[in-house]
Design a protein that fits this description.
Strand content: over 45%
Strand order of the largest sheet: 9-10-11-12-1-36
Distance between the termini: 70 Å
Number of strands: 45
């Protein structure tokens, strides 16, 4: 197998035309400041979220792809301050299509993005892995393409190594490929694992982590062996990409796929993905799989709504030893909702939340933030508008208030099967090719705000709920179009009041409560609506 590198300066657009929409911006004081908000970015046609990271100063880098000027999609990046304000936005790409998959922070404060490109840089009709190395301001330091024309290569995950280089989990011709570049982007090594030459059999590397012994652990999917049609695979490589010749497959008698793998404090790993072997055998359910340092199963959990496809895209360990887990679940009509699940260290459910419009929302990555809350990147979908890149910041128990709802679902254990196979690594060569510098364009900023609860304002949402005055001296009027339950929590998340409300106008007396910030939920038949109420 031969891989080709192309070295070029990317088309970097300082873009502010994509619409950034902040909603539900709240600041909560509980010992320290915990902000929660939601924000979307719109392209000319569509925009999708992919990955995020939080910097040491609590700012965020969020990555996705969007149509910015009516052409094919470009990789889109935004930097936000801790409260969700946009500091800058940029797009990267050429004349064709560029899609982002992952972003990873670098030791110098910058970051690196991987994904794929098609039709922009002489790669033929197929796709090639795309790498963009940036400084902390989003300025390009170097870019690379890896792959062969028409071979449909894609970079799915990237991680910085201890020597300052970067390892990339990717796929070429349906095969597992792990390659390494040096700190300056030049080739270090590349290997294909398992199934060599079997181009009609699905295998791909979706995620990679760098281990304490300077090696790498890669996870994804393989159909070359295992218990079912396709299975989760995990493979361990040393610092030079060499294997111990062992690949581990996890699954049942149907399909499984791992979308992410991350290290845990005990030296093991947590994996997120979907399964058809345990739960829904037709559409599949989301799973969370814990394995130890020897790549042996410790436990597996299944998350299901019980209707159609439910998928887990990402999980990582939290400061308390538990796990945060995101993806989407689907209702009987085929519409998805983003889910966010918190478990303890043994995978037992602590809490679960779902978010989205009536017609869709997906979560692709969730990370615990420096203030103890959670940041989620995904896509917000609508039956009347194009998909939007969606960034959400929650508090420590998953509250983000807007677009938050409750659905019936299950979170249960499963017994996964494990198989081990001895495999080989096949080396691959690279050759750098330089391409011309692309042009730079600028756009005018445009923003709008909705679903915002602030001081001295009446709040009305699209479902006909009106609550006023806010702030209030204690007498609150709530107008509804349907009967509902009103539940009030204090700033520590404790339930302090509830009452059943009638259709039309309701007056409730809260004069006996201490002044401060409270959070309400109006529980209607089809969804829950939440907001902030200030008592003076």
């Amino acid at each position: 197998m031969y891989f080709r590198w192309k070295i070029f300066k990317v088309n970097q657009i300082n873009i502010m035309r994509i619409t950034g929409t902040i909603f539900c911006l709240l600041i909560l004081q509980i010992g320290f400041s915990q902000s929660f908000f939601q924000k979307t970015f719109k392209g000319v046609y569509e925009a999708y979220g992919a990955a995020l990271l939080q910097n040491a100063d609590s700012s965020y880098i969020i990555v996705g792809d969007a149509n910015v000027n009516g052409k094919a999609k470009d990789i889109f990046i935004a930097k936000l301050n801790p409260h969700g304000d946009t500091l800058w936005t940029k797009t990267y790409g050429g004349t064709g299509t560029e899609i982002a998959s992952s972003v990873s922070g670098a030791a110098d404060g910058g970051f690196i993005i991987t994904g794929h490109t098609q039709g922009s840089f002489g790669g033929g009709s197929g796709t090639s892995t795309y790498l963009i190395r940036c400084n902390s301001n989003g300025d390009t330091l170097w870019t690379r393409i890896a792959g062969i024309s028409n071979w449909n290569g894609k970079g799915n995950d990237v991680v910085e190594s201890i020597d300052g280089g970067f390892a990339v989990a990717s796929v070429y011709l349906n095969q597992i490929v792990l390659f390494k570049v040096k700190a300056n982007g030049n080739h270090s090594w590349a290997y294909e694992y398992a199934g060599y030459g079997q181009t009609n059999i699905l295998s791909k590397a979706n995620s990679v982590v760098h281990t304490a012994d300077k090696g790498y652990v890669v996870a994804g999917v393989t159909a070359n062996f295992g218990s079912g049609a396709s299975d989760i695979y995990v493979v361990k490589a040393d610092s030079m990409g060499y294997l111990n010749n062992t690949l581990h497959a996890f699954g049942g008698n149907k399909d499984e796929e791992a979308y992410s793998i991350r290290k845990t404090n005990d030296g093991g790993f947590i994996i997120a993905g979907y399964t058809k072997s345990f739960g829904d055998s037709v559409y599949g359910d989301a799973f969370l799989l814990k394995i130890n340092a020897s790549i042996q199963t410790q436990w597996m959990k299944i998350f299901s709504r019980g209707y159609k496809d439910d998928v887990g895209y990402y999980a990582e360990q939290c400061n308390d030893g538990g796990y945060i887990f995101t993806g989407y679940i689907t209702d009987q009509s085929g519409f998805q909702n983003l889910f966010l699940i918190k478990t303890d260290s043994n995978g037992n459910l602590v809490w679960k939340k779902t978010y989205g419009t009536a017609t869709g929302g997906k979560g692709y990555m969730a990370k615990q933030t420096l203030d103890g809350g959670y940041a989620v990147i995904g896509t917000l979908e609508s039956s009347t508008a194009n998909p939007e890149m969606w960034f959400m910041k929650t508090d420590s128990v998953g509250n983000s208030l807007c677009l938050q709802n409750t659905v019936t679902s299950t979170f249960s254990p499963a017994a996964v099967q494990t198989q081990t196979k001895y495999i080989s690594a096949f080396g691959a060569a690279f050759g750098p090719i330089e391409v011309p510098t692309a042009t730079t364009q600028s756009y005018v900023n445009s923003t709008s705000t909705f679903c915002y609860v602030g001081l001295n304002e009446q709040f009305k949402n699209n479902d006909g709920v009106i609550i006023y005055p806010n702030p209030s001296s204690g007498q609150v009027i709530i107008k509804l179009e349907h009967e509902a339950e009103f539940v009030l929590h204090n700033a520590f998340g404790q339930k302090v009041y509830s009452i059943n409300l009638n259709k039309n106008s309701n007056s409730i007396d809260l004069k006996g409560f201490a002044a401060g910030i409270y959070y309400y939920t109006v529980k209607q038949q089809d969804r829950d609506l939440s907001g902030k109420l200030i008592l003076e």
